[in-house]
Amino acid sequence: MNLQRLTEVAGGVVRRVCWQLFRICPVKKNKIAVVSFFGRGYSDNPKYITDVLLRDPDLAGKLDIRWMTKKGEETSLPDGVRAVRFGSVAYVYHMSTAKIWIDNARKYYTVKKKNQYYMQTWHGAFGLKKIEADAADTLPAGYLRMAQRDARFTDVMLSNSKTLTKLYREAFWFPQGEIIENGLPRNDILFSATEADRRRTRREIGVKEDRRICLYAPTFRNDGRLGAYDLDYPRLAKALAGRFGGEWTVLLRLHPNVAKAAGGLAADGKTVVDVSAFPDIQRLYTVSDAVVTDYSSVMFDFMQTGRPVLLYASDLESYRKERDFFIPPDSLPFPMAQDNDGMEALIAAFDPEAEQKKTAAFIEKHGFCDSGHAAETAAAWIKEKL
Q: Residue 160: which of 386, 384, 309, 375 has the closest Cα?
């Protein structure tokens, strides 16, 4: 066992001991402990719920919100939210004494008290890939034990569709728990973003107002391979210009699991801009005129803007064997290409009206319910428990 692994094991033992010791500490009725992606900064559904809580005049000056972050992520937090190092003894203390837990991923070893409440917002939401119990054959036994324990602690989950609610019931070990089916907080911005918001986002990513934007946001592969990201960006931009007009910039948004290894994948800062480090993909949706993805739930968020969703999946069959699909790709309303020739042809033949009709039928079939008020509903649930 090397030194790093030994340190990790020792740290885990210390945390477990602290969880037991802090059981005697009283819960503080105004404290909220928040985690996003195991220590990422201000992001995803927890961010948008926290925004609403911070704006609530009834709660002004009364909340003690602790956001659990890894080193360097604390700079993303707004006023009114205090950073705690994820995985530290302080993390265990504040989790042990918070009235409310908010998280978007499973929690490792925890001890939840009877007078604490746990809101699980999840991060993937409605997705193409099989997950949790449906993918049990591909998941480590340790993760499955953790996930089932986490499900037992969960008091409420957030859903944006009838199909996602059914998935929570059947694959998330949550058959009887409370589910708020009123959309995902992170998608509220798709309905509320203003022109000023969009101009600010463009300034931050360095794309001028006169350029149209296509966001390329593929998911990761389990083995970290990069070969599937062989989309020809200049050719993509040219095809989009030929079909829709204007000059196009491709925003490259790689999954955090592969972003560093990919090294920007030939981003030149004009035709291709690497935005993998941009903290909020939802803000990127608001400035994008089209999205290209593969198997990511990005497609189901962005489709609600009414703008084109295009799929590029050059490793469809190998990915099918690796992860399998919750929803068959051929049942999706979005056109798919498996090579660059196919992508160019797909764009040339794109029919916006026909695609919008297919997407509307898909939304109706699965009972999507995003309307721009999900964060408010989640915050109201929290406020009631406080």
A: 375
Alpha helices by DSSP H, 34-139: 44-55, 89-97
C-alpha distance from residue 280 to each of 4, 48, 197, 229 (Å): 31, 11, 13, 21
Mean of pLDDT over the chain = 92
Identify the DSSP state of 26: P
Residue 7's Cβ-count burial label (10 Å; 0-12, 13-18, 19+) is: exposed
- Is residue 87 scored above 80 in pLDDT? yes
Q: Which domains does the chain have, with CATH numbers?
A: 13-188+373-385 (3.40.50.11820), 196-366 (3.40.50.12580)
For residue 78, the 8-state DSSP code is: P
Entry pTM: 0.92
Mean pLDDT (whole number) for 216-221 = 86
Higher pLDDT residue, 183 or 264? 183
Amino acid (1-letter code) at residue 185: P
How far apart CA 316 and CA 117 sit, in angstroms, is 41
